[in-house]
Write the structure tokens for this entry.
Amino acid sequence: KPFFTATSLRKSGISAYAALRFLKMAFSYEEWDSFDHAAIVFFSFLQNQNAPKWKKAESELKILLVMQPLITARKPRHGLCVHGGVIRESSTFRKTTDEIFTLARTLYSCISTPEKVLLPDREMMTDATMFLWQKCKIAILRIQNSGSYFLKSLLKYQTAKVNLSHNSC
């Protein structure tokens, strides 16, 4: 039986803040079944909220949704994805490289809000940024170690791309 549903969240007196805390704890302890179910419920709750105070919770949910496939090999079962800064229901999932870029875009969109009260939890932002840095650091070191070979292959790729675009007319 589900721990809570969107209806019980509203009617039972379970605080939405408590539900968000549960969601974060399920993520932290990698309880993916609980996280998947709670994410669906919390997302449906957020869809019915118009108050600005819920924008922060929505940003935090976005970060968790984007990070989940990067942390576990298990395919998420919640059917939610972040696309264009918006949480949507989706049955398709992206490749890991796309997910890393999505995490970077999501982090940027979450911190670029002019209203400081809408910023996600500082600890969550720090953890997500450090996670992103660890993933990018490996690629940067590979580029650095390959030396000029990387630049030559990049130039060769760009030259081929330019030639193809000129020939396609």
Observations:
- Helices lie at 6-11, 16-28, 32-47, 53-71, 96-111, 122-146, 148-167.
- Strands lie at 80-83, 86-89.
- The first strand starts at residue 80 and ends at 83.
